[in-house]
Amino acid sequence: MEQFYTSYKGTDEVKEEEIKKGQVYVVFSEELKCWCRALVQSVWCQADGYQFSCFLVDYAKYCYVPSKSIRVLPGAFAKIPHRAKKCRLHCTKPLTLHIDYCENTAKIGPAKRWDTAAIQHFRKLLEEATEVKATIQTVEDKVLEVFLFVTIKDEKICVNDDLVAKHFAHYKEDEGTAGSSSDVSDDELSLNAEGVPVEFVGPTFLARPKLPFGEEVSPHLGPGLAGCNSVPKKPSQTLHTDLNDSTVPVVSTVPDLPSKEDKAVQTERIPQFLNSSSLQTHTVEDEQQSLQDVGKEKSFVFLSKKIEPSSVLEAAPLSDGLKKELACNKFSGPTFTQSYCWPAAAGGCDVVAISHQGNDPLLYIPPVLTLLQENHYQALPNMSGPLALVLCPGWKKAQLVFDLLKTYRKGCRHLHPVLITLGQNKEAASQMEIRGCEVVVTTPYNLLRLLEHNTGFLCRLCHLVLDEIEVLFSDTSEQVFTILDFYKKATARPRGNLPHQIIAVGTQWNKHITPLIKEFMNDPHIVITLIEEAAIFGNVQQVVQPCISSSRTAELLKILDFTQRNLQKVLVFTDSVTEVEMIHKTLKSNSIVSLKKHKESKCNAECVLERWRKMHSSGTPAVLVLTDDCLPSLGITDAAWVIHFSFPSAAVFGQRLQSLSDNFCPGIKDSAVDQEDMKAKSVILLTENSSCHAPEIFYYLKHAEAEIPEELYDLTARVQESEEDEKFSRPLCASLKTFGICRNRTECPDRHQINLSVDMAQNIAAEMIETPERVTILPLFIVHATKYFGRIVRKQKDQYAAVAKDMNDYFRVPGHRISVNAVEKSVFYGLREGAVCHRVQVVETPAKDEENACKVTIKYIDEGRTSRVNSDQLLHLPVKFQSLPPQAVEIIVCRVKPIDNEVEWNPKVTEHINHKIKGKVHHAKVVQTLGRTVWVDPMVGVTHLPTMRMWVNEYNIRSEILSTGLGTDNPEHVGAILKLCTQMPVVDHGQSLEPLSTEEDTADLEEVSSPPIQKDTAESCNSPVTPPSNYVIQTKEAEDSTVHQQQGCHPPIKWFQDDVSVTLKVQILRATESRCEFCREKVTFSAYSEGKRYVADLELYQSVIAEKSTCVVKDTEAVILLVKEKKGTWCKLLKNKNVHVSLDFECWQESEDETPFTVGSGKLNYPPAGSEEWFESSEDSDTESDE
Fold it and tell me: What CDD domains does its record include (predicted)?
């Protein structure tokens, strides 16, 4: 072969894409300087091309070769038997020291893998040997079971016995092996580390299978397998043995634990050469314990490559210190998924794990910390930068991972984790220096901001972890791939045998995982414990066939007609015995041979399975009709088609897909897969009665990128609308109020539309907001950076201040402090904290069987916060103190949100704002009110200068948040809130909605603290918005509104202005038959959209030039440009208020320096000199900011 490939230069090279794993080729070995037959095991992506990991089948060596050094193996050379033979020590099983970290005890007992010391001793024996001899005892699965003998200084040593004598191993006959003479049980072999006997006779020799040195080998082995010996040329060279004069190499090098060599290769060498069965061998006790631990959650696992699971913590491939720390923290694992992920990750291999526990950081933290304890990294450049990097989707998950690292670093040496949270301030990234840290936890956006100023940050990186991969790729795919490119370039530089590892964990498969595996990973271990996600990876074709219920059988026959021609194995699932019988009878009448199975069937599962297999093997199409409850007993996994005759729920759907698992495609496929490559197919019959589980299946099919018919879209929309209606009694979504948007409405449990009976149950008294342009706010409880609870302080007379003073004076008298015997829910009580008394309301009372039955949950009705106190602390509250309505209001600052699409504020921002504003007086402009919620923009901290009778503006809260770098502009917020609050929900009894007089609403609130919504008067059928002003809405507006409703719907309109013109944006989709009429003081717009007529008749506050005004209709809106007759700024748009018209804050040009809220201690706010209260300058103005 050497002469052939050296002489003939024209031998065919193999293209990279044609080289397949598991195939034998001819490669040129740089070490041996010759052409060798090699088995391709894995592919490694390098900067200069692909490297192939190969096993030389005639030399028992591993090597890496480029594609240019690989040739096709001719048939003549392929027929020659491989010279390398797999061997393992006969009946010799490893022992290890089992440590009970909680009890601080240790015992020697059976193990699943060889200890490092045993491997080093084995290596030392072979290196010192001058002769090696092996006697073969049996052959199992092409692996030679041997007794290995070495000669060292003229002394012959049995390696098997030597390992046993030194307590590295024990003898244990394999199950079914004849002639076992083991007289010592596993328990007798266990030695307590605290009391090892002084003289150990060595019972292991008694337990060894009887085989004298000179005894002949069993005759059933046949010729050519008698014995073997060799004399190595040098200790470092390959060891050879003679088998009946046929020289074959047994091993090339003795395997070692993963150190400086590639871990992925070495984890394969240990079971292959040292003792292949040892990893799978354990005592009965071990096996029972394994089943107990793993069986708790074991259901399904899909593996791209075989992994021996570590089902108990003792046997896990983790450092001893880490195991002890896990045990001390009451760790109950490893879980089913962890038992498969840990061995692969601890071996330094790339790993992709998709599981229900895919968001659990303990999937990767223990093995990564174990790897960092090894001394691999001394060859790295002496620069700042981490060895391991964990990318999380958001700051909250990053904080959780960081806290876990701090907890478990106690079991590791010299581990310094760092959490990086950078804002958008450039100086923060440029000033950050990270030295001496091994692990960094951050988010994609934060890392990219850091890399802009420190391009060499990843130069030492060896382990990259992608946490919650589906979230990372759905929200930040571009940023993640940019980071992966940085990592690829950093690891492309020569770095010796340092590990290059990527671990990706999540709960869902994502389409971006495929390019991640192809372009950035090296033959990863893929672990999927979710059958639905495995079906996506396995390219199961999902088909939805719409039909009406009465035609399902006809559709089924059409589908089966195709499968009959292709001899497919088909399962037809339904959820009732009646349908099984009906389908079976129909198939029989149409000459289709089928089986049936349901809970009332007389034929048992074994009988059905046997007939199922015989049908297919005899060339008859196999069709089985069954109910879902029969599938577990049958255990079918080799079906090619699954037909869902009854629409499945999410749980049943996964169970049905598992019956296709044998036909999942095992490798990564492109997204555009040829239909012929999809061996497995799932067909869902969609009918008008399938609404119950439609959303669940819809989102799965969308996630799987399957083709979805319009019928399923419509059915899902109807179900979601119904589900939203069911939330009508729930609170209004907090995210919607705080940021103007809810990103996951389907999963959100709260309401996303106005409910008058809930949102308007308690309104803010009108006199509390006498001038909405300027109100005084006292924030008392800070929920987060933009949401607070506090009081609106009246400028003339603060009623609460008087009540609070009287209440403190009342309870100062000991006789007035009367404790409550029986606490009732929703009742007001008094609570004395030091010298301060509060009005509180009981919101939750404990159940009688609870441990802390005396604890009750209360709400401070004048502050907004909640707390748990002892019931005996509550005091009877006189009626005179209950007449004042609760003063706490919810305050939300508009037009600012967290950076990086975060859904929650970083605690740094909240802490900063809390320290800045709590308990301090602020002035704010009210944008909108709803019930007891107030949206403000801006909100300014002020200081009163009594000697000068002036207020000084110190800071703007929105500007303070932006200055931290952790907040960004949210221009859509106000528009979204105004749109939400102008919704007109249907009111009972068919009454028309008319504006409510603010004074009447206030009068009701003065009478009771929680007034019911009256429905018997026109005034009580109020809009969902409390108008942020103190005027009474005129009758003419109501009349105009009624006329407009008769003529058509009023479209939402946003407006903004400059000195020359006013721009109106009429929000109307795909307008037809549009018409716009301009007058000097009026503009009328009308159009049709989606079958509805829309009319807007606007009476302008000032005059315009009708001839120069224009209207342009676009796809989503109509833009009306009004040219002002006189240049200047209008104080409002319309003469009369219109709830459908609002300011467009996205296009508003006014700067903050031009507003009355000038920020900075150097600028004084008007009023004029001599005026005590700054509201006076604007009380006489009737301007409206939103018109």
Answer: Tudor_TDRD12_rpt2
Residue 1149 has what pLDDT? 53
- In 635-765 the beta strands, taken as DSSP E runs, fall at 641-644, 681-686
Please tell me the distance from the alpha carbon of residue 434 to that of residue 444, in angstroms, as a whole number.
17
Mean pLDDT of the chain: 77
Rounded distance between C-alpha atoms, residue 155 and residue 930, angstroms: 94
244-279 b/e with 16+ CB inside 10 Å = b?
eeeebbbbbbbbbbbeebbbbbbbbbbbbbbbbbbb
pTM: 0.63
Question: Taking the chain, what is the end-to-end CA distance rounded to the nearest angstrom?
Answer: 91
pLDDT at 774: 83
d(Cα 1177, Cα 1179) in Å, to the nearest integer?
Answer: 6
**Beta-carbon neighbour count of residue 935 at 10 Å?**
26
Token digits of residue 870 = 């002892």
SS3 at position 422: coil
pLDDT at 182 over 80: no
Cα dihedral 898, 904, 906, 907 in deg (nearest 10): 140
**Spatial contact of 415 and 369, defined as CB atoms under 8 Å apart:** yes
Left (φ > 0), alpha (ψ -120 to 50) or beta: where does 989 sit?
left
How far is 965 from 426, CA to CA, in rounded Å? 9
Residue 224 has pLDDT above 50, yes or no: no
Sheet holding 569-574, edge to edge: 541-546, 681-686, 641-644, 569-574, 622-627, 595-597
Alpha carbon distance 381, 460 (integer Å): 7
Distance CA 556, CA 572 (A): 9
Range ranked top by mean pLDDT from 38-47, 72-81, 170-179, 1123-1132 = 1123-1132
Q: Rounded to an integer, what distance in angstroms lies between the CA atom of residue 904 and that of residue 884?
A: 35
The predicted structure's pLDDT at residue 496: 67
pLDDT for 79 equals: 82
Residue 872's Cα: distance from chain center in Å?
45
For 293, what's the count of Cα atoms within 13 Å in the CB-facing half-sphere? 22
Separation CA 5–CA 8 (nearest Å): 5
Separation CA 232–CA 1074 (nearest Å): 96
How many of the other CB atoms lie within 10 Å of CB of 1143? 21
Residue-wise pLDDT for 304-342, tens only, equals 888 888 888 888 899 888 888 888 888 887 999 999 999
- Two structure tokens written together for 188: 């007798």
Around 487, how many Cα atoms within 13 Å sit in the side-chain half-sphere?
A: 30
Contact call for residues 146 and 243 (beta carbons, < 8 A): no
Q: What pLDDT does residue 35 have?
A: 87
CA 612 to chain CA centroid, nearest Å: 41
Residue in 145, 144, 172, 149 with CA at minimum distance from that of residue 160? 149
Alpha helices, DSSP H, located in 511-576? 513-520, 531-537, 552-565
Considering only residues 262 and 792, tell me which one the structure prediction assigns the higher pLDDT.
792
Tokens of 1045: 């409703």
Does the CA dihedral 987-992-997-998 come out positive or negative?
Answer: positive
For the chain, what is the radius of gyration of the CA atoms?
39
Q: What are the backbone dihedrals phi and psi of residue 692, each rounded to the nearest 5 degrees, phi first? A: -55, -50
Q: What percentage of residues in the chain have a pLDDT greater than 70?
A: 76
Whether 947 and 986 have beta carbons less than 8 Å apart is answered as no
Q: In the structure encoding, which two tokens stand for residue 775, read together?
A: 């109100």
**Element spanning 891, H or E:** strand 889-893
**Could you give the 3-state DSSP secondary structure of residue 961?**
helix
3 state SS of 803: helix
